[in-house]
Amino acid sequence: MDFDYAHYMLTEGVKGKENPSGLCSPSREAYQKRLAEALNMNRTRILAFKNKPPTPPVDPFPHEMLSSSMHQKKPSRPRRSIPQSSDRTLDAPDILDDFYLNLLDWGSNNILAIALDKKLYLWDASNGSTSELCTVDDDDGPVTSISWAPDGQHIAVGLNNSHVQLWDHHAGRRLRTLRGCHRGRVNTLAWNNHILTTGGADGGIINNDVMIREHTVESYRGHHQEVCGLKWSSSGRQLASGGNDNLLFIWDRFMASSNSPTQWLHRLEEHTAAVKALAWSPFQGNLLASGGGGGDQSIKFWNTHTGACLNSVDAGSQVSALLWNKHERELLSSHGFTQNQLILWKYPSMVKMAELTGHRSRVLYMTESPDGYTVATAAGDETLRFWKVFGTPEEVKPAPKSEPFAYVNRIR
Predict the structure, then answer these.
(1) Under a CB-based contact definition with an 8 Å cutoff, are residues 264 and 243 in contact?
(2) pLDDT (tens digit, 9 = 90+) per residue, 362-386?
């Protein structure tokens, strides 16, 4: 239906024929008026069937400002540069090449302790001075484990004869000897306030209260071969232990004195080689990382509340030590044959961020500075290396480059 044509035929098309004079009757005019109104109403309804085009928003900013802001990028965090070589390399003659021992520790006092056979040396990182704290007797040595107390003043020294000596490094004297802890050498030590936990070649784990005469207060039984790894959680409630029996145990401090024959919280059997490398996460209290020896070569992550294995990564070689970065979600591992390298992993993706080489033998011992930026490693190649793998704080000036064991070089 063509309303325009119909309207034309009813009005204009017949004007000359039906009304040559241009005059219309009143009835015709009324009809034409009603017809025009109907046509206009129909046109309006059809055009309104579609939605009206949206009204463009008012731009509150000038065009120049908007264009410049679109090209501005958010300030990106500068990418950390990871040095591919050690910051310095020092000689460490006569360090024992033994996977099951723990002979390197960096105290809260910024003093690095290293055991070289029967001698214990201290290097003060703040001024570069070096001193010999003690030399154990031939019948007692060699030194098999060391660990700084949280106060940074006292250090525990585990010996091959099953005893543990406590030394005051300020006074330079031995305070006491803990006897009868084990039936063999003391492989590993861990502090929990004034409680010193010892792990021995006999598979035993003992809590020693160093403030009382009868120092043995609790013991843990579960390992049936020598214990080579011990670490307390930051809360001081859970203890992780690893042994040459390929077992990893999680112990609860408040279950140790119970009469139950099974004292452990979790007995974890997923590793297939000795478990020495242990590290509690600094940002999640119940997250533990563990590393297996040459027959296992894996790094595993555990929820110690439930005992669940959260992830397992093939590291490619023997894992001897693990350290968490205190400033980033990263994990550093040290390795043995074949590359004797350090690997920096991004957590939780476990993407390799860097592989650091330099040691010519397996990297057995690893510790970090109190500020969490510098890592020290010692290996069977009789060298001690320092790595800036976790970065360098801007507010801290670099320590003077002095060789802490320079005078030992002349003895070789």
Answers:
(1) no
(2) 999 999 999 999 999 999 999 999 9
> Rounded to an integer, what is the distance from CA 11 to the centroid of its chain?
91
Query: Would you tell me the crossing angle of helices 3-10 and 26-47 to the nearest 10 degrees?
Result: 170
- Taking the C-alpha atoms of residue 245 and residue 291, their distance in angstroms, rounded to an integer, is 14
Contact 364, 378 (CB under 8 A): yes
Q: Residue 45 falls within a domain, yes or no?
A: no
The DSSP 8-state label assigned to residue 273 in this structure reads: S
Beta strands in 269-402 (DSSP E): 275-280, 287-292, 298-303, 308-314, 319-324, 330-335, 342-346, 351-356, 363-368, 375-379, 383-387
Task: Decide if 109 is inside a domain.
Answer: yes
23 in a structural domain: no
- Render pLDDT for 20-64 as a digit per residue (tens, 0 to 9): 444 455 555 665 665 455 445 444 443 334 444 444 444 444 444
Total count of residues recorded for the chain: 412
The token pair at 276 is 């020495």
CATH number at residue 163: 2.130.10.10
Is residue 330 over pLDDT 90? yes
Q: How many domains does one find in the chain?
A: 1
Give the whole-angstrom CA distance, residue 92 versus residue 405.
7
Distances (CA, A) of 278 to 112, 131, 211, 349: 20, 29, 27, 19
What is d(CA 284, CA 238) in angstroms, rounded to the nearest whole number? 13
The whole domain housing 255 covers 90-409
Which range, 9-13, 124-128, 241-245, is most confident? Answer: 241-245
